[in-house]
Fold this sequence. Notes:
By secondary structure, the chain is α+β, with helices and mostly antiparallel strands. It has 24 helices and 15 strands.
Amino acid sequence: MTEMLDRARHIATAVRDAGGRALIVGGWVRDRLIGRDVASTNVALEVFGLPGGRLRQLLEPFGRVDAVGESFQVYKIGDVDVSLPRRDSKSARGHRGFVVAGDPDMSIAEAARRRDFTVNAISWDPLTDQYFDPYGGRADLERRLLRVVDPETFPEDSLRVLRAVQFAARFDFALDEATRALCRDIPLDDLPPERVWGELEKLLFAPRPSIGFALAMDLGVVAKLFPELQALANCPQEPEWHPEGDVWVHTLQVVDQARTRVDDLPRPQQIAIMVGAVCHDFGKPATTAFSDGRMRSIDHEEQGVPPATAFLDRLNIHTLDGYDVRKQVLGMTAQHLKPGMWFKARDEVGDGAFRRLAHKVDLELLARLAKSDCEGRKPGRFDCGAMDWFLERARSLGVEHRPPEPILLGRHLLALGVKPGPRVGEILKAVYEQQMDGTVTTLDEAIARARQLLGQA
């Protein structure tokens, strides 16, 4: 943070010497005021009193200047963003439907008026330590309240509704009633999948994502964007397993539990578990019925795959850094009850079952999600040791992250005189199945089984 702030101060000094003024604005100021760690938050400088061309010349001695949106002069100097105050005018539907122009002659209050919430409309002079707060953002920070800056222009950018949701969860903020009512009335059908996912991802990694999801339900965001989640709120659950209420409430508890079990994982795996927690009970609305005096859900895990697929398609979630997030989410949705079921019949579940399941899903991720599901039925009420047994068993077989590599390969069959063709695949598959069962453990055994299948034994 010191290096980033020092760079911002040096730029602010140069701006001052040239007759302008540079203020730090936005999230960095908000986070600093509430005592959050700002080390990973980029500094954004807003420069008053200098035209865009002069500003760029002034910045060049500080390093490489990357222009972002030449029309309104936003420049990146390493991890510092530098821009002119901006005037926005709505030109079309959608998050990007704005004509934006830089205006160095705007007042500080005018520049702050374009921001979404008052807590984000505070600026700070790094040279004088002076705050500018024309819309009462500091008082709202004290009250932990989200309040719109300008009710007239706020609805022009529908993404702000999702920002309200993730801010509420990340910072434990409440919405004031006027802001809440405004958000309920804003259509969200102009938002592209990548923008929706960008805000949902931030929500999933809040300390308690359930705060944001509950707010999203109240604001109608869930009904407008996520019908699979909306269906959970209308699906009752067996009181024996979910004394806390319906499947929606349970899902929020599972998401919060999952959030406590991902920090040690790479980012793609973290996302897979968090999205898996959201999707894990998607099959229940289609399979839950009143039978024999009780609410029952039968085979809901497999039935959850189609709505989970629709959810992932809507957000365009596929791979991340080469990792197949989509496959893992669908695998966890389909298999999340397996750890508990197998534990109950653990003397009858063979090693081959674990090896085959590892083809469908990462077993460690599955165990973490299953434990979140169990603890989400009311922490401490159920014995969730089944998931620990499941993961230990998977690790003992070396299949916690992937299935075993085939021992027998095509080149081995070619060396036995088998000609290329469908027969090669058939034999490889047959021998691999025996490897899954543990009856083939070495290359010599694999070749011997292949010879038997070829009639060479």
